[in-house]
Amino acid sequence: MKYIIPVLFSVLLAACVEPGSENLPPSSGRPGDIFLIMDSAQWKGPLGRTLDSVFSAEMEGLPRKEAIFHMRWIDPRKLNSVLKQRRNLIFAVSFDQKAAGARQIRATFTPESLEKINADPNLFSQNVQNVFAKNQEVLFLFAQTEEALIKHIQANRVKLVEFFNLRERERLTQSLFRAAQPQGILPMLRKEFNCELKIPFGYEVAQQEPDFFWARQINAHDDKDIFIARKKYTSQTQFAKDSLIAFRDAICKKYLFEDPDRLETHLLTETTVPYKPVITREISFNKKYAVEMRGLWKTNNLTMGGPFISFIFVDEPQGMLYYIEGFTFCPGKDQREIIRELETILYTFKTSNEITPA
Q1: CATH code for the domain of 88
Q2: Residue 14 CB partners (closer than 8 Å, separation 6+)
Q3: What is the pLDDT of residues 272-319, one digit of tens each?
Q4: Residues 165 and 314 placed together within one structural domain of the fold
Q5: Could you tell me the pTM of the whole model?
Q6: Is residue 202 a contact partner of residue 226, using CB atoms and an 8 Å limit?
Q7: 165 and 244: one domain?
């Protein structure tokens, strides 16, 4: 997704795009950070509250409250060279505002751009990459009135969040797979499972069965796990939430334990906490129908637990239902970025008809 909405023109920026991206410094900042540049009056008013509710909303499926993004407001008049180099920037302005900060952002638009915006009230966004730094994403949000901009943002809140989620996944893909992948895993998955999944350096195969594959990375502070499970596809009812939880629990009870010598320590899905429900939603996963599931897991003896994210879809040529999941054990620590990393790995999955010939 390159643009939030179909944009029929490029916003020409009069005062901010620096020529020659090859000469720019690298972008800075932590994954999941967004810096919002807007006038102080609008930040303290309805527009600021709306943007904060979109990007600082709680990420689903985590054991404790964590925002989808960590958003920080910056007054346009205090936007120095260091802040300009942050990885994710949003400039927001409505043209009915006359305060100094709003005027400063408006000045970045050329007269030609303003004419095109005036001519089409449906246009409200434009993204530009590598404006002040390499590997940077800058999003401009604009409208003639604050009320109109708020309506656009509310109507497109899911797309706005997914836009930056996608950009963070792209960056993570670059960093996770910069080093060589563990040898032997990719050829084995092609041969035994008729699929592909990129596994980053540092992960090791924990178990391999005809219907199950498990890789994990154990660090001093966290345990990151990826697994693939599959079975014959029979009907669309297999995508129902209860069916997916039952399938997940059957796989966990068969293969995943805190201690393999103690069968009562198997993993299962946490479904007993009302304020932390398992969430499912229909999505397009690499251009095919899928269901995304997020929630919490626990061990049957209640000694361990954590969040998971999974995707479920059909490999039509094989007639197989695939369930792929990432879960982590990282007690007492923030886990948003771990789940985002596991999600990035899962998105490298390819079904049999998508495999690149060796």
Answers
A1: 3.30.379
A2: 107, 108, 109, 110
A3: 999 999 999 999 999 999 999 999 999 999 899 999 999 999 999 999
A4: no
A5: 0.90
A6: no
A7: no
